[in-house]
Specification:
- The complex is a heterodimer.
- By secondary structure, chain A is an alpha+beta fold.
- The longest helix of chain A is centred in the C-terminal third of the chain and has 18 residues.
- Chain A is elongated and about 55 Å long.
- Chain A starts with a helix and ends with a helix.
- The C terminus of chain A is likely disordered.
- By secondary structure, chain B is mostly helical.
- Helix content of chain B is 87%, strand content 2%.
- Chain B starts with a helix and ends with a helix.
- Chains A and B meet through helix 3, strand 1, helix 4, helix 6 and helix 7 of A and helix 2 and strand 1 of B.
């Protein structure tokens, strides 16, 4: 953090894509996983299929998410995972939230 | 609109961080259960089958071991592929676990066949040694 940044309120460093509550929950879930099935994320975040699809498209468009479709047996499955950019953006977002919350040292707790 | 102008309060930030921690726990819980079952399944199977190779005469032992091992591996791999989530770092745990098992298995098999063929005092304790990487991996997965 430069001297100039030190005088700027941390909210300016929040990632606008991740800041939405639903997208934040999606990214928080995927940050703890190598990959997760669409249905698992939907149930964890407690949203409908359509809401999750819409938010996944936004995260995918931002380059934060990877979507992989495949089959397990004859059943189609959609797997979601964070990209390296998404993981980095989430870490930075958490660090900013930590700064706003007025504490430090919780990153490992929230991502592992 | 006010939230956009002023940004989240400290309390909102703490709630968001708590939400991230909850999501992380949800992934950990969902993943740990199946990984423990998966690795324990491999461990128990090899603990039972390993002595079969060394204690029974050559073609008989192998003819029992090979199809039984292939069947169990097929079932467990299918079980693993059906699971909805793999936790961050699980791939590394699997590589280390299976790598350690492969070294232990190959070493115990070569030494046993050369020096201790048909000797239960070697093959039964070594079955536990060969199963140990899987059981240790299961313990680590449940503990993380």
């Amino acid at each position: 953090v430069s001297r100039l940044d030190a005088h700027v309120h941390p909210r300016h460093r929040l990632d606008e894509v991740i800041h939405s509550p639903v997208r934040f929950s999606i990214v928080a879930t995927l940050a703890a996983a190598d990959r997760a099935e669409f249905g698992f994320v939907r149930d964890t975040v407690e949203v409908s299929d359509s809401v999750l699809s819409k938010q996944v498209a936004i995260l995918d468009g931002a380059g934060y998410l990877k979507v992989k479709k495949g089959y397990v047996g004859k059943r189609p499955r959609t797997w979601l995972s964070l990209s390296a950019a998404g993981r980095a953006a989430f870490q930075a977002h958490l660090a900013t939230l930590d700064a706003i919350a007025g504490r430090s040292g919780s990153l490992g707790e929230t991502t592992r | 609109v006010a939230a956009e102008v002023t940004g989240p309060s400290a309390e909102h930030a703490r709630v968001a961080l708590a939400d991230a921690a909850r999501a992380s726990r949800s992934v950990a819980t969902g993943e740990a259960r199946w990984t423990v079952r998966y690795l324990t399944g491999f461990g128990l199977t090899i603990a039972i089958l390993f002595p079969v190779v060394g204690l029974l005469p050559s073609p008989v032992g192998t003819s029992i071991f090979a199809p039984a091992w292939v069947a169990v591996v097929t079932v467990l791999v299918r079980y693993g592929r059906r699971q909805p989530v793999t936790r961050l770092g699980q791939g590394r745990l699997m590589v280390i676990t299976f790598g350690c098992w492969a070294v232990a298995y190959a070493g115990a098999l070569v030494i046993g066949e050369k020096l201790f063929a048909g000797n239960p005092a070697y093959w039964i304790p070594m079955a536990l040694v060969v199963a140990a990487p899987f059981l240790a991996g299961a313990w680590l997965a449940g503990r993380r």
